[in-house]
Amino acid sequence: MGQRKKIAADAAKEAKKTTYFAKLNNCPTSPRKMRLVADLVRGMEVNKALGVLQFTPKEAATKLEILLISAMNNYEAKTGVKPDAGELKVSSIHVDSGRMLKRVQPAPQGRAHRVRKRSNHVTLFIDKIEIAK
User: Fold this and answer.
1) For residue 46, what is the domain's CATH number?
2) Looking at the predicted structure, is the pLDDT value of residue 1 above 80?
3) Residue 46: inside a domain, yes or no?
4) Which residues does residue 45 pair with via DSSP β-bridges, in sequence order?
5) Does 11 map to a domain?
């Protein structure tokens, strides 16, 4: 590895130590449905977001709730400190399209329609709340 790449790799590794996130790959929900729930909690304080997800009736909310708890556990593992109430916020959520399963639905007169079963990848970042003085 060249010197320039090594410096960039070391800088990225140092930045990752202070980044707290969790990832969910190939979640069998369409990205559009997951984005509806992700928009509810984006930018929210973590405990408040957990409450919102717990009482949201959509199926995607339970998967995001588990992901948020995982991100909080990652924060605790990296820092060694249990997060206090009001200390963390959901800084960003990315919902990207995952793989698509293509299936066939029988149609009238011997035809067939294609059914696309979509999945998504969700990345959830949490960060400390900066208190302005």
Assistant:
1) 3.90.470.10
2) no
3) yes
4) 89
5) no
DSSP string over the chain: --HHHHHHHHHHHHHHHT-EEEEEEEESS-HHHHHHHHHHHTT-BHHHHHHHHHT--SHHHHHHHHHHHHHHHHHHHHHSSPPPTTSEEEEEEEEEEEEEEEEEEE-GGG-EEEEEEEEEEEEEEEEEPPPP-
Tracing tokens 């009238």 back to the chain, one arrives at: 108
| Cα dihedral: 7, 13, 19, 23 (round 10) | 130
Please report the pLDDT score of residue 17 as a whole number.
Answer: 82
Residue 56 lies in a domain: yes
**Spatial distance between the Cα atoms of 133 and 124, rounded to a whole number of angstroms:** 28
In tens, the pLDDT along 87-106 reads 899 999 999 999 999 999 99
Per-residue pLDDT tens over the stretch 18-70 = 889 999 999 999 999 999 999 999 999 999 999 999 999 999 999 999 999 99
